[in-house]
Amino acid sequence: MSRHRFLMILLLLVSLVLLLALSKSERQQALLFTEDEYPEDLDTLEEFIQSYYLLLDSDSYIKEYSFIHPEHNHLSNESPALTDFYRKLLELRAGKRKQVVIYQIGDSHIQSGFFSGTARSALQKYFGNAGRGLIFPHKLAKTNQPDDYQISSNSRFSRISKPPSLSGYTLEIARPATLRIKTNSFFQIDSKFDKIRVFADSEARFSDDSGLQMISHNNDPAGSSHLLKLAQRGAEAEVKLPGSMKQLYGFSLEREENGLLYHSMGINGAGFYTLAKEEQFFQQIGILKPDLIIISLGTNDAQGRYRDEVMKANLRLFMQNLINANSEAALLFTLPPDSYKNGKSNPAISSIEANIREYATEHDLAWWELRAVMGGSGSINSWRQYKMAARDLLHYTPKGYMLQGHLFYQSLIKGYKVYSESGDTR
User: Fold this and answer.
1) What is the rounded average pLDDT for all residues in the chain?
2) Residue 109 zone, left/alpha/beta (φ > 0; ψ -120 to 50; rest)
3) pLDDT in tens, 294-307
4) Which CATH class, in words, describes the domain spanning 42-130+258-426?
5) 131-256 fold
6) Which residues contact 305 (CB under 8 A, 6 or more apart)?
């Protein structure tokens, strides 16, 4: 070991000891390094220390909620399932990779945007902000939309729910239209963007009068992708949709800088049973080239008349189609949160958890047990007492979803910390 490296390691360890002796307020101001001071050959030891620092403040936040079971807040079966994904994150931090892409599939728990928005902003503050990622004009499609952006237009559109698109829904367009996009800092992170990626049907063609500079165009049997560039970074933009566009699948707001992109889509009422046969949907996901796909389904599969053999068949068909179309992506399940059915704790949730664990174990995939972290079966009552669950004891309040997003972020950072500590960067 070189003398320079030995001194750097010694300095980091001393810094960690001093950091632990500080109060929380002091720790928040005592960053080990500023971004400009990171060495070019960023190594796993430093990443272990930096991620440990993140968890110190994260744990302090979680302790405010006594009903949480933090001992369960970790990813299961993550090695080797997520090893390649963690390596990409480390390369991103080291400046050896420009971007890492996450894509989350979900139901109404995800469509509201609070879970994914919280996880996204927390991860981007550490791994770099490559943009807001996937958005869709849900309000123009007459359904609920996340609060961190607005999309408006004077034109009228028709919503197509089947087949689902990579954003969940599709807008049918009868004539040229202009959409105005505006972002805000709802999740306390810079939401400005300088690139817009437009996802549409394969016949769509943008011309020079689109209002933005065309950078690239890619066509795929499942749809087309058009990258437009703004003259300067901002929080607002107008996109003129051409007459050749018949269907709009969504936008991705991006930034000309290295970092993490966290796309998410949620469909109210979705489950493995509604998406398993939608081959075009799985093919469209591939347009995003995700490094990690998060599957957050199961709540709606547990409603109605639940049959275990049907659930297993839908899960396997869903995963078969997902993997066939996205074979290079790492996969991670988030097991469904606690919920009630017919006035009592829904017993089907336990069966769905068991089926997902069985499938994940069989195929060397990772999972996160949200209900266990929440407090187990019936824990939604505690969340309701703290005004974090809705009256239907099926959905959650914005604050509840945001807490779930923070817990998921913490579990992912824990896994990354273990990887960093191992020093296995192969």
Assistant:
1) 87
2) alpha
3) 999 999 999 999 99
4) alpha beta
5) Jelly Rolls (2.60.120)
6) none
